[in-house]
Backbone:
């Protein structure tokens, strides 16, 4: 708890009180971070206060990564991924990942999680491999890839790439992925 050493005694009391409220509500993890983020947004701060603006940005980022990873079914193991596809071997899933047909993120030292939304109706999401190839050429991180698929886009009429791929509108998403990250795109 390095940051606690920098707190004034009054601030430390507030931290302890907030922690007690969260514990009493049996709230932890992403849910607690989401509550803290919403509460932080409600704290009044002058617009010209740079320190407050910086802290507000930090508060906004609380739990965002975990929330993204947990959306649309969260992350599953290679064994569960294989089972959902009706495959007998998780080695097949590893081979798919190595070929870039699917992707995963690291959870711990030797543990990978695969976004469950890569499976659609017990088969691979239509167009997934092609879009992944484009995003990987752009050196997009696993979290960036998740964000790309799950975020709505004005260019896609307010829909997200995942929604359109589920509708088999792969050409639109492929073209969008090619423009992704470009200035003005």
Residues:
């Amino acid at each position: 708890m390095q940051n606690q050493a920098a707190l004034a005694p009054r601030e430390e009391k507030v931290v302890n009180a907030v922690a007690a409220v969260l514990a009493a509500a049996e709230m932890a993890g992403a849910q607690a971070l989401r509550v803290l983020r919403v509460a932080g947004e409600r704290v009044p701060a002058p617009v010209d206060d740079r320190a407050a603006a910086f802290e507000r940005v930090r508060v906004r980022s609380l739990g965002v990564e975990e929330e993204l990873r947990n959306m649309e079914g969260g992350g599953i193991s290679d064994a569960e991924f294989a089972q959902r596809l009706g495959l007998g071997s998780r080695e097949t899933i590893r081979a798919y990942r190595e070929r870039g047909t699917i992707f995963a993120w690291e959870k711990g030292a030797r543990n990978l999680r695969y976004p469950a939304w890569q499976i659609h109706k017990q088969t691979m999401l239509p167009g997934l491999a092609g879009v992944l190839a484009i995003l990987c050429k752009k050196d997009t991180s696993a979290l960036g890839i998740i964000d790309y698929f799950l975020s709505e886009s004005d260019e896609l009429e307010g829909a997200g790439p995942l929604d359109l791929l589920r509708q088999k509108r792969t050409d639109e998403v492929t073209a969008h992925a090619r423009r992704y990250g470009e200035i003005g795109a």
